Amino acid sequence: MASFFGEVLPVISRAVEDEESDDEFINPEFIWKPSDDSGSKQFSPNWLVMAVGAVPAGFLQCHMELTNSLGNIVEINDSKEKTIIGFYSSTCGKVIYCISSTYILPDKLWCLVQKVFEVVHCGENTRVCLLDADTVYNYHTHSIAKLSLPFLRHLKTSKHPDVPDIDALSQPNMAKGLTAAVMSYCQLNKIAAALYICYTETVLPDAATLLAFSKLTGEEPFKTSKVPKEESLSRIKLYLQSPANNQTLYI
Amino acid sequence: MSRYDRAITVFSPDGHLFQVEYAQEAVKKGSTAVGVRGNNIVVLGVEKKSVAKLQEERTVRKICTMDDHVCMAFAGLTADARIIVNKARIECQSHRLTVEDPVTIEYITRYIATVKQRYTQSNGRRPFGLSALIMGFDYDGTPNLYQTDPSGTYHAWKANAIGRSAKTVREFLEEHYNADIAASDEETVKLAVKALLEVVQSGSKSMEIAIMKRNQPLKMLEVDEVEKMVTEIEKQKQEEAEKKQKKAKGSAT
Question: One Pfam family, short name please (chain B) (predicted)?
Fold first, then answer.
């Protein structure tokens, strides 16, 4: 293309034929793989606790009795299976814990959420508790210097009772990812649900961040299933020594 | 913000050097280190990093000597720490050869800070993602504790902390440090241990304490010495808590 000043500019022609897009959305395939003991029945717990991310998952593994593995939701991709969410039940059987440390693409979230609620039936009295974590640098506030880390913020559905001890997540901060999708589902289906987001200095698990949710351990559903303090400390030590968490970049 | 945070040599319109600020965030990813200066002793305490099963523990060190009378604890990028320590060690020996005197703590701190600052003003480089606590005794017997950060600034401190949860530890030190503690060697060491216990979850096994007294080389405290101190401190805390409870009951009745 020649410009007004006589120079020739490279311009891509807009006169092209629209080809059919090859990127058609294909419904992701999530299947429920029960463990040997649980079978393929639907679960109807009093509490559903979902931990999404390394820090909430580490918190549950170090502080809670996750005795019985119920199964996993796996994603089938090119005949390969990838575990997305692991399901565990508490000793009393009234609480189901879901742990997910994998990043899930936004366009797959809704299918995954529907799969979760196919496996777990939430009745009128079922409560959902979601745990998520983020770095404090993604938290928008005027006075970040006044905040002592880590700190919790909550969001709840309209059916959930008030959460008095923990501040609500204020605008313009937002919940994202799987926990946000589950909250939306719960709000639409009138399920009592609360999401607790912990803002920490770092999203990599360390001893301090693994204690980040300890404010919740005095309440249900964590009160009945938590392990003694000495055992949780030794579990934290083991968890941090695992190869996935042992990185040598920082000292 | 993204237009001004890629090149170290570019200021943002509101005067930030984002790469330097990001380097300071890298420091917070390192484990905690605390330094306390007494009248006759200087103490460095660090949170020991968990070591992989097949890893040689002696090669994972957060406290390094730079000369017989100077040592340093650091927090941040491991590789950057090794470069700075090597440069500082060479400078310490070069100074001895040139002027036939050991470096003062201020001199070597200034040297390290100058190196760091140079890296904040050069194209094609990035700042060191490292903060350091440098302690030791000058030849006149004065104890010193200095802190440097990625921007290249340095200051002298009576007590300070760097790394993860440094703010919590610093607040503890501000509350508890006083002239009486500085006058006693034992209390100075105890203060460093207490400050670390604020953030280290698994007690004495996750700490390393180094002390330096006048005209003596650096001494790393043995594990059982640290454990004994931690037990004493926890006993004291319990006694104080019981006293408070009794007082509260007494005033209630």
Answer: Proteasome
Q: CA B234, B239, B244: angle at the middle one, nearest 5?
A: 125
Residue from B47, B205, B53, B26 nearest A243 by CA? B53
Distance from CA of A216 to the nearest CA of B (A): 19
Residue A216 gets which letter from DSSP?
Answer: G
pLDDT digits (tens, 9 = 90+) for A138-197: 888 887 767 777 889 999 999 999 888 889 999 899 999 999 999 999 999 999 999 999
Predicted TM-score (pTM) of the model is: 0.72
Domain count, chain B: 1
Per DSSP, the residues of A67-84 read: -EEEEEEEEEETTEEEEE
Residues of B in contact with A246 (CB under 8 A): 50, 52
Residue A50 inside a domain? The answer is yes
Q: What is the CATH number of the domain that holds A38?
A: 3.40.50.10900
Residues B95, B103: contact at Cβ < 8 Å? yes
Look at chain A and count its residues. Answer: 251
Beta-carbon separation of B28 and A237 below 8 A: no
Does the beta carbon of A208 lie under 8 angstroms from any beta carbon of chain B?
Answer: yes
* Domain-located, residue A251: no
Q: Write out chain B residues lying below 8 Å of A237, CB-based.
A: 50, 202
